[in-house]
Amino acid sequence: MGSEKTIDCPSVKHPSHNHPLWVFKSQEEDEIICSGCELDLTGQAFKCMKKDCDYFLHKSCFDLPGEITHKSHPDHPLTLLYSPPYGQSYGCNACGELGSGFTYNCSECQYDVHVGCAFIPETAEPEDHEHPLTLLYNTPCKGREDGVMFICDVCEEDMSEDLWVYYCKECDYGTHVQSCEAS
């Protein structure tokens, strides 16, 4: 982390962390993970001022709204939680991956979405497909009684019917929302 540059400014507090944070600029070669979204951190961010504390936040994670209404879960608002609601980790209802950072949560339904998944675009244009893909909040096979499973056209893995998918109806082509859509 030798290339990180601290910007001279006063400290700030964030409800997700006990120590003050300060603005700094992270470089790609620093290989830092954001404590909020658990993705690579580059550019303007926040770092814990305490020397032995490895708490970092993207500016976008620092500024997340405390509550959102999301098309995937229209009956209840989703509340931003800074730690997993069920212990060490949670399963994201969008991508199916485990998370241990911030989540948008509906406590009534035990519905959780990574903060990164909550704001993915409603369309994607992968290089390997001629049409734009539309975001669906479950697979096209959901509710079928014949037991047919949806298979990701990129990685060729079966997908749970409740996972979100980028889909082209014209070609019956679909992909996982995070790991496969940009392929």
From TrEMBL:
Pfam families registered for this protein in UniProt: C1_2 (PF03107)
Residue ranges of every copy of the DC1 domain listed in the record: 15-61, 71-118, 129-177
Ribonucleoprotein keyword on record: no
GO molecular function, a single term: zinc ion binding
Superkingdom per UniProt: Eukaryota
PROSITE patterns: ZF_PHD_1
Keyword Transcription included in the entry's annotation: no
Keyword tags: Metal-binding, Repeat, Zinc, Zinc-finger
Name of the featured protein: DC1 domain-containing protein
The species this protein was found in: Eutrema salsugineum (Saltwater cress)
